[in-house]
Amino acid sequence: SRPSSLRRAGCKILLLELKHASTNSRALSLFNPAPGSPGQRADDEPGHAEALSSLKQLYRRSGKWNALVELLRSELDGFKDGDVKSRLALLHELLAIYRDELKLEASVLSTYNAILQLDPTNTEAAEQLSRTYETMGRFNDLIPVLMREAEAESDKKRKVALYLRVGKLWIEHF
Question: Residue 171 CA to chain centroid, in angstroms?
Fold first, then answer.
């Protein structure tokens, strides 16, 4: 169809511009249409992984972290629920941006929670989330994380230690 062929042509032009410029504002504008307009976006056209990858690199090099987050979130929304490995990889990518570039503590916490929903055995995410909630004094949020971690734990000694910690939190803070 005509709109599809125009979109493909736009993606090809973008690829050429991305290859010839490090932070090309014209290339960025191709993927930043006015709000509400039917702009050309690489993630709208299946099979343009190279354009999507180049756009991610361009956003990283130019420090357009919010645009990169938006692109990654739309990519995340496009994955099927069964594609856990790909979803986890994108969540870890988002986590690094929220933590290291944007310094958004609330987004870091929600991303850790999203990781744990997909992978309850992810000890790194559970420990970071627990440590952060405890530091912030958010014991109402800490207890469910510890309970979820205990339920996923296979080592009986560690499971008991987690349940004891939950009990201690209840006694000390509620």
Answer: 35
